[in-house]
Amino acid sequence: MSTRGVVYVHSSPSAVGPHVEWALSSVLDARVVLNWSAQDAAPGTVRAECTWVGPTGTAARLATALRAWGMVRFEITEDPSPGTDGERFSHVPGLGLWHGRTSANGDIVLGEDQVRTALAGAGTREALTRRLDDMLGTRWDAALEEFRYAGDGAASARLHQVG
User: Fold this and answer.
1) Residue 133 located in a structural domain
2) How far apart are CA 13 and CA 53, in angstroms?
3) How big is the CA angle at 93 (ends 114 and 78), to the nearest 5 degrees?
4) Residue 21 belongs to domain spanning
5) What domain count does the chain have?
6) What DSSP character marks residue 82?
7) Which InterPro entries does the UniProt record give (predicted)?
8) 162, HSE (Cβ side, Cα atoms, 13 Å)
9) Is residue 117 part of a domain?
10) Parallel, antiparallel, or unpaired for β 156-160 and 108-109?
């Protein structure tokens, strides 16, 4: 089953850019050359984005490949496909990797077992709020928002997985 998504590299040291391209290339089995531009939210870093097409689960493989570069801020989305939820992965240095399932309109979807576990493990309302915020990726969204805004209007490449 084929799907598509987007890789947003919100910030990366410029010296790491070729490694990011290599990591994406190895997952997509195609040469990847990104259109890098300065990231104003973090002077001295660069940003890039690209769309991709590949089999279901490609977003997870891309996130795993980019996670090796702990100083890189990124988000990867995968659109829903028949029988499979969409996904979003966010990585922020100091917070690590976050993953959530997404609905057709991009909202984060929590499963009933996730909610039951959060309710059962929360001794206070504040603890429940913290747990739900983590499940929804609130801290990652807050940490990336400035980088998302700074990337508006940047060039985007289109990538297709081979095979």
Assistant:
1) no
2) 26
3) 50
4) 2-106+144-160
5) 1
6) T
7) DUF3145
8) 8
9) no
10) unpaired
Q: Is residue 113 part of a domain?
A: no
In order along its 163 residues, the chain shows pLDDT tens digits of 899 999 999 999 999 999 999 999 999 999 999 999 999 999 999 999 999 999 999 999 999 999 999 999 999 999 998 888 999 999 999 999 999 999 888 899 999 999 999 999 888 999 999 999 999 999 999 999 999 986 555 544 444 554 4
Tell whether 115 is covered by a domain: no
Cα separation of 107 and 58, whole Å?
Answer: 20
Could you write out the three-class secondary structure of 117-155? HHHHHCCCHHHHHHHHHHHHCHHHHHHHHHHHHHCCCCC
The residue type at 160: H
